[in-house]
Amino acid sequence: MLTRHARPGALRKALKLGVQGFVSKSAEPAHIVSVIKTLHGGKRWIDPDISALAVIDDCPLTDREIDVPRVTGEGYAVADIAARLHLAEGTVRNYLSHAMQKTQTPDPARSGAVRA
C-alpha cells in the first residue's frame, strides 16, 4: 500500500485487510522502488517507524487529532494549520481542544505561558 496516510491507524486497518507492504508516498523514490522489489520477491515490508507507533495501542487520539498538534508544533497559527490540513479554523480549534482534553494537557493561554 502506497499511501499519503502513513499513520498507525491506517497501518492497522491495512494489515486487517491483508496488505503485505506499507510505505508513505512521501518516501524517497529510490526507497519506494526498493520496497516494491522486496514485495515482488514475496517478502513483506512495513515502514518501521509507523509499525513502532502502531504497537502503542493506548494513544487516545485519532489520526487527525495527532495531525493538528504536529503542525502546531511547527509554529503555525490556526489559520495556517487549517489551510495546510484543508480544515476550517473552528475544526482545528476543536481538534486541539479534544487532544488537550484527552491528554490532560493544560491550556497554555490560561496558564499565562502564551504571549500576545
Short description:
It is built from 7 helices and 3 strands. It has helices at residues 8-16, 29-40, 48-54, 63-72, 78-85, 89-103, 108-111, and strands at 2-3, 21-24, 45-46.
Key features of this structure:
Arc Repressor Mutant, subunit A; 116 residues; 7 helices; mainly alpha; Rossmann fold
Topology of this structure?
Layout: E1 2-3, H1 8-16, E2 21-24, H2 29-40, E3 45-46, H3 48-54, H4 63-72, H5 78-85, H6 89-103, H7 108-111
Parallel strand pairs: 1-2, 2-3
Describe this structure in words.
The protein has 2 domains: 53 residues, Response regulator (Rossmann fold), CATH 3.40.50; 45 residues, Orthogonal Bundle (Arc Repressor Mutant, subunit A). 56% of the residues lie in helices and 7% in strands. The chain is built from 7 helices and 3 strands; from the N terminus they run E-H-E-H-E-H-H-H-H-H. Helix 4 packs across helix 5, helix 4 packs across helix 6 and helix 5 crosses helix 6. It is elongated and about 50 Å long.
With strands numbered from the N-terminus, the spatial order across the biggest sheet is 1-2-3
Q: What percent of the residues sit in helical stretches (DSSP H or I)? A: 55-70%
- Rounded to the nearest angstrom, the distance between the terminal CA atoms is 44 Å
Number of domains: 2
